[in-house]
Amino acid sequence: MKHVIYFIIILLQLPSINSLAQGWECNDCPRRSLGLFDCDVQVPQPSWGDPLTLGDWLEFNFVAAGIHSELMDKDPSRDCLSFYDGQFVLEAETNPEFDSASYKISYNWQNLPGPGSLSYVDYIIYAELIQSGSDFFITVYLEAGKTRELAGTNTVQYNLSLNGGDNGKLAVQPLIPLMEKIREFEKEKRNELTNVAIDASLEVKPQKVYLHTNESTQINLILKDCDDFKLPNREIHLTSTAGALSSYSVNTNQDGEAQVTYTAGGSPAWVEIYAEHLYYYPHGLGVIDASDAKFISVQKSPVDVWDFKVTADVRFIKYADTTWSISAANSPTITHYRSFYESYSGNLTLAGLITNECSGNGNEFCYTGNDLPIIWFVYGNAGEFSKEKSTEYFNGVLKTLGETITYCNALAAGSKIRTDYYNMQTDNAGLYLEYSDGLKYFEVNGYGNGQANYHSKEWMFGDYWEPFQGTYSRSASVAVSWDESMPGGSLTYQDSAYILSYSNTETIYEPDPYYGMKQTTVSKNLNGIIKPFYRTITDVDANHFTPVAIPKYFELTCYPNPFNPSTIISWGLPASGLVTLKIFNSLGEEIKTLVNEYQETGYHSTLFVVNSSLPSGVYFYQIKAGNFISTKKMILLK
Questions:
Q1: Cα torsion through 508, 511, 516, 519, rounded to 10
Q2: CA dihedral sign of residues 563, 565, 570, 576
Q3: Number of H helices, E strands in the chain
Q4: Lower Cβ count inside 10 Å, N or C end of the chain?
Q5: Are residues 408 and 436 both part of a single domain?
Q6: C-alpha span between 487 and 182 (Å, rounded)
Q7: Over the stretch 484-525, which tens digit does the pLDDT of each residue have?
Q8: Number of domains in the chain
Q9: Is the dihedral of CA 71, 75, 78, 80 positive or negative?
Q10: DSSP string for residues in 521-565
Q11: Rounded to an integer, what distance in angstroms lies between the CA atom of residue 460 and that of residue 423?
């Protein structure tokens, strides 16, 4: 049998999704930004004759350097942290036109955070040194940037036989690895508050996904964090595209679950049940959105309808750094410096229902975009940061009379520095997939459009920077494609469903006439499943808290009977084995094969929906399971 699937998905409208919801995983390396501040030396400068010497006191000011060195060079979790100098952080907090690419740190002995919220970074770390009698003590503080809550601390006695830097290293050691302390704090905050999570996920599980008009079913909601922690007492908001919900706002119980009742309307319809939970990150930033949607058929034929959900994640870093120098005796060194850096990340979730445009039998399937999807939703976001430098300058040392050293720095006119940044929501998406005897291929794309911000400075004649800033239109995309010739992916047909999977990281080197060699690292991941909608109906009973019963005998029945246009066929298996379920007309001619697969012991069911060309009359449904065969009569009344 040849299996062919074509998808061309046109335009999707976003639900209300916050574009910040990306990159906050509960794995070993959840990215966090950290502002590094100095040590608040509260010991007054000594006077002549004091036991504490001026040299000892000056060493106190190098405690912060030791703390920073230990975190940036020795902490095993350092690759999970983005470090920012405290002075840099304070400038960014107070200056709306702050240009991070051209900012230069000035010399400052005590660069301290002061009181109040700091929203530029997730966390900050600083220290204080105090005197108690003849002893001195260092306390290191790890705090959330926005809320300034204490996430970790440690106090040690200052050792006057060691320099300030070494004392700082000893003081921060108990807080290393820092990410472990941060994760402990975040989980504690998440467990205490009902509006905080690390990376929450929400699942919508209808008890029945095929309803008659005016029929009701229970909608189960499951809310948990990325470490599978159940999130209790959380508010979930719901919407439905048709029919009515018993409540449009509900709180989860202690198991992170909630239930509402959905009642179908009086007309046949395809219905989307959408749910969302808004929360903050533990360090105070947000608001973030956990959401999900499921689909319900209200007296709509699910036979040629396919249910799919695909998630994709793309990240890349591209950079180049080219420096070369020319030196001559008794002359300054002429240095040229050009650099380029760009980071990008994007994610996409795409789900929906589509119809089969093929008229073939069995598992043949195609969708060419001639008909719009029945119903679907998409969410995701894409963000990028890029930085370019092109500076040419003299940088050397000249000696004058008396051996006084003078430094000479002069930028060449036309040197430029620029940064660009954008972050936007995905507002449309596309998916194409083919599965056949000769070809396996899929491509998933998400797109967004918005405004990007840029800051640029150019060194002018007269030794000054000319600043420029503005916005421009920018489109963003999340794209993952795969075919059989590419490693790291697969497209398989199993148990009436198509499974999509792709995971690959690749580093590419390319020469550039201006920057030298550019290095690009690209990471792509995708997971998805596409299955007939009736498979969703078949699976639903066993997944909704129904105890598994073992039948003593083979059973076969259908309800309703007579029927129009559909009936549910149910059977019980006292033993596992290959099961086939077929429909025949009164002449003994096969009409349709509903099931042909291996099934476990227990109760099973499937939905049989007739097409419009099938006339009224007597039909037969027959099951074969091992040596057991049973045939029963059903009546179609139109």
A1: -10
A2: positive
A3: 6, 32
A4: N
A5: yes
A6: 36
A7: 888 899 888 777 778 889 998 888 888 876 667 788 888 888
A8: 3
A9: negative
A10: EEEEEEEEEEEEHHHHHHHHGGGSSPPP---SS-EEEEESSSBSS
A11: 31
- CB burial class (10 A; 0-12, 13-18, 19+) of residue 166? middle
Number of neighbouring beta carbons within 10 Å of residue 359: 8
- In the chain, the largest separation of any two C-alpha atoms, in whole Å, equals 116
User: For the whole model, what pTM was predicted?
Assistant: 0.63
* One domain, residues 554 and 476: no
Residue whose entry in the numeric block shows the structure tokens 């009379």:
401
417 and 268 fall within a common domain: yes
Residues 262, 214: Cα–Cα separation, whole Å: 10
Radius of gyration of the chain (CA): 33
Range 487-491 contact pairs with CB under 8 angstroms and sequence separation of 24 or more: 489/526, 490/440, 491/433, 491/435, 491/440, 491/441, 491/442
pLDDT at 106: 52
d(CA 400, CA 404) in angstroms, rounded, equals 6
Joined together, the tokens standing for residue 388 give 């370019």
Do the Cβ atoms of 465 and 459 come closer than 8 Å?
yes
Q: At what angle do helices 63-73 and 164-172 cross, to 10 degrees?
A: 50
Structure tokens at 218: 């229970």
Q: What is the CATH number of the domain that holds 602?
A: 2.60.40.1930
Rounded distance, CA 537 to CA 582, Å? 18
On whether the CB atoms of residues 40 and 112 are closer than 8 A, the answer is yes
Across 183-304, the runs of DSSP E, i.e. the strands, are 201-206, 210-211, 216-224, 235-240, 244-245, 249-251, 257-263, 269-280, 286-298
pLDDT digits (tens, 9 = 90+) for 321-375: 666 555 555 555 555 667 777 777 777 888 888 776 665 445 566 666 566 778 7
Phi, psi dihedrals of residue 240, rounded to the nearest 5°: -135, 145
